[in-house]
Amino acid sequence: MRSRWVSPLALLLVLVSDLNPASSSDSEKPNFVLIMVDDMGIGDLGCYGNKTLQTPNVDRLASEGAKLTQHIAAAPLCSPSRAAFLTGRYPVRTGVVGVGRLGVFITNAASGGLPRSEVTFASIAQKQGYETALIGKWHLGLNCETSTDHCHHPNRHGFRYFWGFPLTNMRDCGPGGGTVFALEKYLPLRTAAALLLSTVVLYGAGLLPVPRALAVGAAALLVLAPGLFAAFLKVVPYMNCVLMRDGAILEQPFSYTNLTQRMTREAVGFMERSADRPFLLFLSFLQVHTALFASARFTGSSPHGLYGDAVHEVDWSVGQILQTLERLGLSENTLVYLTSDQGAHLEEGTNGGHNGIYKAGKSTNFEGGIRVPGLVRWPGKIRPGLEIHDATSNMDVFPSVVQLSGGQLPRDRAIDGRPLLDLLLAQTQGSGHEFMFHYCHSTLQAVRWSPRHSRSVWKAFYFTPNFHPPNSSGCFHTLVCFCSAEHVMAHDPPLLYDLSRDPSESTPLGPESEKDFHNIIDAMERAAREHRASLQPRESEMTAGKVVPKPWLQPCCSSVTRLCACSRN
Questions:
Q1: What CATH number has the domain spanning 30-177+243-371+435-547?
Q2: pLDDT for 361-376, tens place per residue?
Q3: pLDDT 10s digits, 53-63
């Protein structure tokens, strides 16, 4: 593993010595502006073919830099995808993987999160003298033992400045946005309610000989449960919809009023304060995840409702970032990268985005769930209008930042990302990702193979989700597709696709339609075995004991009797 990384770095030192941050002064080190949009589909952007949304500022990144057309998120859900982005490692290595149905953190009072033992690109850049900031969404945990220990906080993972949201943007945060805890989405809860009602009715009719206490208890639960659930939903925004500056709570619950504009001002302010030294800014949008929102100036600006309005506001914000870099004279020395953490959320129906020609969306490992925008601009270094069709990953940002900041890759762990620089500077052919591994929680679901000296991109699925309805492209009876056995269909032999000929994954191949089927599957199986052998045992950060809300971990800016409400911004 060590030798794999030494040679590209040595080559870079020889061929691109003027870009070697280790031998240059701080003023010559490149800045990094890393932008992640939440749940935006690759088909939402003009530079990827959208004709109905206006994204001129994002499209500038493509025309003035490089567009990655096979850019892959390491996971199709927020928390694991972001953990992989920050660490350059598959989520199964960090423990940020789901257990059972749950695949992300859903409460601020959980004890799970990105382990302190993990190394992020921000922590390495900070050690190299960079000012570092995260503006926006974190979604990788907060506390471990007390409500203020902040063991998983961004400040503990290399971000010197944090202005944003420790959890995520939930439906419950927006007035009238509904709830992620909707009972109609949870079959076990509906089944339990039906059993309680049947018990009461059958007992009353004398058809069910059970103890009277049991029937009375069932009746009490039926009467009390709706009220208790309604009270819980009232409290959720105060528990989970929190805005912080470093360790201090600013708003609880946070306000959507001009929220993206406020985030943008924070990002601009950070760049202005850091203009005389190298900096790394991670701008992590809440948009376009539900609950959807947009400022007044953008409301009604698109033909796609509030979702399209939110995309327009994100594009405006990107424009403000680019303008600021130009005003400060930093454009030539700043690498700007933009992506999405996963594909658009089709289960949101009309509130979701567009994944272009790609199948399915968020929570699945079909291309619509993991093929995301990848745009990189570095004027004077990256050729304008460059298109890269090799497989790349959001994990590649980690080794790229380490390389350019003058840091060293950790030698005590596997790093799955590959440096992007040689590919972006057209000094190499191929990204280094011959194989990629796609996980549904901690279970390997699919393998991707880009054979050297071949145009084919093979993808084999060991199991696929059961879509509802069956002929759709999503799990519309729930908010996401699940990984558990009752919600998937196993395939032996695996389903095989050639993405170079069938990017929409519409027609699986078999021995009858692909003469090399068995050789291809065998090669992918060998790669999967080698990959599994490289994994170290790691407890999930999303076990029941770590995700269950713990009152003593709940962040609160005031007395609990006041529902932890404040506005100090």
A1: 3.40.720.10
A2: 999 999 999 999 999 9
A3: 999 999 999 99
Secondary-structure breakdown of the chain: helix, strand, coil percentages, each rounded to the nearest 5: 35, 15, 45
Per-residue tokens: 235: 């409290």
Neighbours of 56 (CB within 10 A): 13
Question: 1: buried, middle or exposed (CB in 10 Å: 19+, 13-18, 0-12)?
Answer: exposed
Peptide bond into 194 cis (omega under 30): no
Contact 483, 98 (CB under 8 A): yes
- Domain ranges for the chain, please list them: 30-177+243-371+435-547, 182-240
User: String of b and e for 309-319 (b: at least 16 CB within 10 Å)?
Assistant: bbbbbbbbbbb
Active site (catalytic) residues: 78, 139
Structure tokens at 26: 């701080």
Cβ-contact 336, 61 below 8 angstroms? yes
Neighbours of 514 (CB within 10 A): 18
Closest CA to 297 of 269, 260, 243, 268: 260
The mean predicted confidence, pLDDT, of the chain is 90
pLDDT, one tens digit per residue, over 87-102 is 999 999 999 999 988 9
- What are residue 425's phi and psi, to 5 degrees? -90, 10
Longest dimension (CA), the chain: 88
| Token pair for 369 | 């769930």
Alpha carbon distance 36, 27 (integer Å): 26
What would the pLDDT profile of 432-446 be if each residue is shown by its tens digit? 999 999 999 999 999
Its sign, for the CA torsion 487, 493, 494, 496, is: negative
Q: What is the Cα–Cα distance from 159 to 122, expressed in whole angstroms? A: 6
Residue 311 binned pLDDT confidence (cut-offs 50, 70, 90): very high
Amino acid at 446: A
Amino acid identity for residue 357 in this structure? I
Q: Whole-prediction pTM value?
A: 0.89
Nearest alpha-carbon partner for 484 in 493, 496, 472, 475: 475
How many helices (H) and strands (E) the chain has is answered by: 14, 15
What is the model's pLDDT at position 200?
A: 59
Tokens of 19: 């870009």
Going edge to edge, which strands form the sheet with 566-567? 386-393, 66-72, 374-377, 334-340, 31-37, 279-284, 131-137, 161-165, 243-245, 248-252, 566-567
Through-space distance between the first and last CA atoms of the chain, rounded to whole angstroms: 47
Q: What is the pLDDT of residues 122-150, one digit of tens each?
A: 999 999 999 999 999 999 999 999 999 99
Output the pLDDT for position 186.
47
Task: Note whether 92 and 535 are within 8 A (CB).
Answer: yes
16: pLDDT confidence band, cut at 50, 70 and 90? Answer: very low
3-state secondary structure of 325: helix
